[in-house]
Amino acid sequence: MNKSTKAIQRWWMQGLILLVFTSPPLYPATEIAFADSEYSIWDEQAERLEDVEGDLGDIDLEIDELVDDTQEQASHVLLSAATWFDDFFDDTRFIAEENKTRAKIRLETSYHEEDGFDISPSVRWRIHLPKLEEKLNLVIFAADDGDDPSDSNISSDLSSANTTRSDLTAALQYFVKTTDKYNISTTAGGSFDYLYVGARFRYFKSFKRWQGRFIERLRYYTDDGWENYNSLDFEREFLEKFLFRNTTSLYVREDEDSLDHSISFSLFQFLTDTRALAYEWTNNFETDPSHRLADLILRLRYRQQGHREWLMYEVSPWVNFPEEDGYEAQFGLRFTLEAKFGYSDSTKLKNIFHF
Questions:
Q1: Which end of the chain is more exposed for a tag (fewer CB within 10 A), N or C?
Q2: Residue 228 CB contacts under 8 Å (≥ 6 apart), including other chains
Q3: Nearest-5° angle of CA 183, CA 100, CA 351?
Q4: Which pairs count as long-range contacts for 255-258, CB under 8 Å and 24+ apart, including other chains?
Q5: Backbone angles phi, psi at 77, to 5 degrees
């Protein structure tokens, strides 16, 4: 190789080395560009993901709101249906929490295979007292205590343990707290033969398509001492025309050694806005001298509004199987005529029963 050729190679190598060290780095630039490109792609994906998550969050919120609204509506319909039936059948669950001026005169004619015919009139007059924060009522009753659980118990006139008081009695009822879940009231009153004070507590809870109601009533009578009544209801509305209710109750009295309790099943059927049926099965138990089934009662109640809105009548045949008679079937029939004043029709009937 001649000298000129070696000189050219040396210059070429020096130029290449100078070019390598003086030129901007290619790989870092490529990496930066790639990194920038990757960053922009992930950033866009993250924004899209946030949008999707936001949409899913909105959907979940809408679903939660729909579930809550459905639950609330179902609970409202169930509560309204139960209230309507209790009002229509004049049940103590409804009567004990009234806070309006109302009056009722009732005449019952009943026939029992063992006891024959019996006619029993009763009256109840509830006077709402104004200017007391709408919490105080004056209640006057005879043979019809609107807050006496035994008054509506179908065993009250069939069993030997009849606890319904027939005296003319007046009482003041004060509502301490009234909400959809809670109802707390106190009562003080008496007749010519006794005085009494008491308190009543009710708690309501909804379980999806079921609802539960716990009631405790404590009273002290100057003639008979303490008594405590507890009941637990579970009920649900179905097929838009029916309401099923299971009730377990315990009745404790100071002057009785027995712990009377019962388990009952009721099926209410809506026919029209003026007619309804109730199918009832009650098992009454006693614990003195031993725990036993004291009475089993089956009853059908047909109740209808008369030619006037304030007039109601009811026909209810029944059959009971008392333990004291060897559980032999005994038949009976009751006809009830009621005149109510101050009662108004419910405006929610069509929303409840869809007719």
A1: N
A2: 216, 217, 218, 219, 250, 251, 252, 253
A3: 75
A4: 255/224, 255/225, 256/161, 256/288, 257/288, 258/161, 258/286, 258/287, 258/288
A5: -65, -45
Q: Could you check whether the bond before residue 322 is cis, i.e. omega within 30 degrees of 0?
A: no
DSSP 233-284: EEEEEETTTEEEEEEEEEEEETT-SS-EEEEEEEEEEEEETTEEEEEEEEEE
Cα separation values, 98 from 92, 95, 126, 342, Å: 10, 5, 9, 12
Whether pLDDT at 118 is above 60: yes
20 pLDDT more than 60: no
Instruction: Enumerate the β-bridge partners of residue 172.
Output: 138, 188
The model's confidence at residue 197, banded by pLDDT at 50, 70 and 90, is: very high
CA 310-314-320 angle, 5° bins: 150
> Position 22: which residue type?
T
Residue 257, phi-psi category: left (phi > 0), alpha (psi -120 to 50), beta (remainder): alpha
pLDDT category at 230 given cuts 50, 70, 90 is very high
Pairing between β-strand 330-341 and β-strand 260-272 as defined by DSSP bridges: unpaired
Number of residues in the chain: 355
What is the per-residue pLDDT across 288-343, written as a single tens digit (0 to 9) for each? 889 999 999 999 999 999 888 889 999 999 999 999 999 999 999 999 999 988 75
CA distance 9 to 186: 116
**Checking phi first, is residue 90 left (phi over 0); if not, alpha (psi -120 to 50) or beta?**
left
Q: What three-state secondary structure class fits 232? A: strand
Closest CA to 252 of 234, 231, 266: 231
Residue with tokens 């009295």: 253
